[in-house]
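Collaborator request, handled under Task 6.
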Amino acid sequence: MARARDCSDSREDTMERTAKKQKRKRSRSREERKHRRRRSRERHRRRRSRYSSSSSSCSSDSDHERTRSKRNKRMEVADSERQRRLRESQQKSVEAAAAERIEELVDRRVKEELERRREEIETEVLRRVEEAKAVMEQQMLEELEKRKQEQLQEAERREVRIHSYTSLIVAQLHINSRTRGPAL
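Structure tokens returned to the collaborator:
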């Protein structure tokens, strides 16, 4: 019975306090507000500890139950979030390891393929080099033949000029020898 009276008294006290607070609304400085909040928190803690010590108070059990269930829900949400983050980080590490492994396998296969085809590649390179040499030799021979032909043509032109000059000189000598008469 005394406990029931305590519960009803505390409810009346809280209702009375809220009514007083509404009447006393006025602007306060930050310091005052902080101080009042601190005091009200302390009072609230004291009241809660008083009620928690009594085994069967009317509203404190349901309050404690509500706060416990809220706390449990928050903890469940936090646990699920933690597990989700853990799964994500594990997934990322697995993906990174897989990517690294794939890269290693690709490198190894490329090296093996190059090693296996090395002779084939070398013979292909040598064949292409020989083809290029043959083409260059052919071009050089053609160039030499062309120069040789140009030199022969130049030599023939000179010969023709020399021949025409000599025939002019001989003709001139004949003309000169006729006009002078026989030599004594």
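The cover message to the collaborator said: "The CA atoms of residues 172 and 178 lie 10 Å apart. The mean pLDDT is 81. Please let us know whether this matches your experimental observations."
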